[in-house]
Amino acid sequence: MWNERIQSRQVSISVIGLGYVGLPLAIEIARSGFRVIGVDITEEKVAEINSGRTHLVDLSDELVAEQVNSGRLTATTDFSYVANTDAIIICVPTPLNKTKDPDVSFIVNAIQQLRPYLKSGQLITLESTTYPGFTREVVVPMLADTGLKIGTELFVAFSPERIDPGNERFSVKNTTKIIGGYTTECTKRTIALYSTFIDNLHPVSSLDAAEMVKLLENTFRAVNIGLVNEVAQMCHKLNINTWEVIDAAATKPFGFMPFYPGPGLGGHCIPIDPLYLSWKLRILNYQARFIELAHAINSRMPNFVVSLVQDALNEHERAIKNARVLVLGVAYKKDIDDPRESPALEVIEALEHKGATVQYHDPYIASVQIGDIRYHSIPLEDAVAAADVVVITTDHRGI
Fold first, then answer.
1. Are 57 and 336 in contact (CB under 8 A)?
2. Residue 380's pLDDT is what?
3. Among 116, 108, 74, which Cα is nearest to 90's?
4. How many CB atoms lie within 10 A of CB 330?
5. CA 347 to chain centre
6. What is the pLDDT of residue 151?
7. Lowest pLDDT segment from 30-44, 189-203, 376-390
């Protein structure tokens, strides 16, 4: 019955959280012919989507308007609408708190809001990044408190998001999706649904395994970026061109994968996800040394960039105090509008602390708050002419 209803598009779907993960997913599901209710706590975002506009660079207003005007996509702040849907996909943020521990409060709050409206037969999929065991140890018991039996009346799965903002080659649809269910039936139902709007699926044996897959992916990147960031500092000490070394090593057709140094880690995944794994292992009395070392190296990179700026000024007999510095790009990578965890913000703050006068240009981000100061993007032509130093933070060769 479930499969037949999916194939005939009689299943309706709720997507909780309409940010960088949830909105592209909701659009793809709607494009596949399903009725989608998007739920978000931000009234401005909901109004924007319902008017056929988007705050995301990766999505065009036309694409959003097409799904809204067709009646397949509606946004709301009212969680009660999920009572009329058959599947619920949770895509809320999972940041770190001030002590660098996992902050899962957005997930917990979302489930608390959902619980009064759950009904027998619904599928609930969590896509927000968590530590291994979270869905099984926290989410499942919260859902079981409704009185619905997990695995026979309410079905639960974890399918980690794999969104890469700015990537023109891989989108929601053509990026392989990991599926891990609480039971075999949970996995089967999730596969039946997701296969209608995702090209390739890869099921794993459990919720915990699916959670671990996501953390391995981003830990791999964080550790290798940490390695190459340390290589960059070594090459600086040895007076060797880092880029020449990496480009030469990359000519080897086996046994080497190029990573590139930068001003630090940014975004919603790489600076955060490995620390979820490190935290989980600490409570099991195990130290994730590679993760913690990579985090320490990557965290030092903004200050390394500032030292390079200071060296460049010294070579021209200029002090960093009162120097005019232009930072190109405050997003965590080029061609996107996302400044989350961007190392450029730390670079700006550190330069200001040393007495420099800092301005920035970013065509995707009109303004950004750094500490107590609100910075605004300035026209590029005027800024370059007036600057003593230009730091290109979103094209890593600029460091």
1. yes
2. 87
3. 108
4. 27
5. 21
6. 97
7. 376-390
On the question of pLDDT at 398 being above 70, the answer is: no
- pLDDT bracket for residue 396 (50, 70, 90): low
Collapsed DSSP state (helix, strand, coil) of residue 132: coil
Task: Output the DSSP codes for 237-298.
Answer: HHT--HHHHHHHHTT-SSS-------S---SSSTTTHHHHHHHHHHTTT---HHHHHHHHHH
For the stretch 86-126, pLDDT in tens is 999 999 999 988 888 899 999 999 999 999 999 999 999 99
SS (H, E, C) 136-202: HHHHHHHHHCCCCCECCCEEEEECCCCCCCCCCCCCCCCCCEEEEECCHHHHHHHHHHHCCCCCCEE
Under the phi-then-psi rule, with left for phi > 0, alpha for psi from -120 to 50, and beta for the rest, what region is 2? alpha
Residue type, position 111, single letter = I
- Give catalytic residue positions: 269
Burial class of 345 by CB neighbour count within 10 A (0 to 12, 13 to 18, 19+): buried
Contact 91, 21 (CB under 8 A): yes
Q: Is the pTM of this model over 0.85?
A: yes
